[in-house]
UniProtKB/TrEMBL annotation:
Keyword Transmembrane: yes
Transmembrane segments: 242-262, 282-301
Compositionally biased region (Polar residues): 323-333
Protein species of origin: Cladophialophora psammophila CBS 110553
Record keywords: Membrane, Transmembrane, Transmembrane helix
Descriptive protein name: Uncharacterized protein
Length: 344
């Protein structure tokens, strides 16, 4: 037997109850239709005493006659069978949700086994962390769909129970409390009303726990990605420091190369001076290279200030101060109105 709450079984035919009362014969005919595989039909048949292959006993016949006196009782039995299915459905939701929560606890325990070293955490994230959280996210999505479907069905069952209870309270049958079937129907409808609301509360509770778990998983993924980005930024910063060092070395040697190129091959012409060979351009070369190198390094170290100064000069040339855009060539609206008003 399948449950109409189980979405895997596909669409199930609705349970319909039709009846007709024949006054001259004092006979009420009930027609109950539904899917033969639906456990709701089999449960209703058991409650009414219809067993396959067996003829009902005299006691069961009396109970059937008593139940037939109130069509609301038969409808209430149908809702009760659906409620039993709903309880199994909520139990399945609970098991699936708790299974994912336990996996989140296992993730935390596995993560704490690693040190706080970023390399170890990245190794954990690469080996099992990301795959585990991806699986938990997928399962929580399925749990979310299951909860939403259950809440929609429960809400419809609550509305249906309230409609039947309101119709029973306003029917002439409810004004005969001395009948046992009337009292049983009233008690069963009251029980169903409270039970359906309890089922809805359980589903809301599980949905809240699911949202909390989903937020934790999302935050765990975000924090891990942030840690990886920070580590990458740290490595890029180290690479940037290396590039700065290379730049400084280049600026130290590049002016000397440039000056030697300007002096061309004159530095290689030598003359004998007091027992050793020296080029006549040696000292001019040294006194030119040193200031030139210092000048280039100063430009590089003060490049940020020079950029701001150039921006300020550029703004002054346009007649607008960066600090006060209303100065210079730009006039306020009131000044323009005064100038316009002075013209004849």
């Amino acid at each position: 037997m399948s449950s109409r709450w189980d979405n895997k079984a596909g669409p199930v035919s609705p349970v319909s109850i039709s009846f007709r009362h024949i006054v001259p014969e004092n006979l009420t005919v009930y027609i109950i239709s539904g899917d033969p595989k639906d456990s709701c039909i089999s449960s209703l048949k058991d409650q009414l005493g219809f067993a396959e292959g067996f003829s009902p006993s005299e006691y069961i016949r009396l109970e059937q006659r008593r139940s037939a006196q109130s069509p609301f009782l038969i409808v209430a039995h149908t809702l009760q069978a659906s409620l039993e299915q709903a309880k199994d459905y909520v139990a399945i939701v609970k098991d699936r949700l708790m299974g994912q929560i336990n996996k989140v606890d296992d993730y935390n325990e596995a993560k704490h086994n690693y040190t706080e070293d970023p390399k170890d955490l990245q190794r954990f994230w690469r080996d099992k962390g990301r795959n585990l959280l991806e699986a938990i996210t997928e399962q929580l999505h399925l749990v979310s769909q299951t909860i939403d479907s259950g809440m929609a069905n429960t809400d419809m069952s609550i509305k249906l129970t309230d409609i039947i209870k309101s119709a029973f309270d306003s029917s002439p049958l409810a004004k005969s409390p001395q009948e046992s079937v009337v009292a049983e129907t009233a008690e069963l409808l009251e029980y169903l009303s409270h039970s359906w609301n309890c089922e809805m509360n359980w589903l809301r509770t599980y949905k809240a726990r699911k949202d909390t778990t989903m937020n934790f998983v999302f935050n765990a993924v975000t924090q891990q990605d942030s840690a990886i980005n920070i580590d990458m930024a740290r490595k890029m910063s180290r690479d940037s420091s290396s590039m700065h060092a290379i730049t400084i070395l280049t600026m130290i040697f590049l002016p000397a190369t440039f000056v030697s190129g300007v002096f061309n091959s004159g530095i290689l012409t030598s003359e004998k001076y007091e027992g050793y060979v020296r080029s006549p351009l040696f000292w001019p070369y040294i006194w030119t290279v040193i200031p030139f190198t210092v000048f280039v390094l100063t430009l590089w170290l003060t490049r940020k200030r020079l950029e701001r100064a150039l921006e300020w000069v550029h703004g002054r040339c346009k007649g607008v101060s960066p600090r006060n855009p209303t100065r210079g060539g730009t006039r306020s609206s009131s000044q323009k109105e005064e100038v316009t008003g002075d013209k004849p």
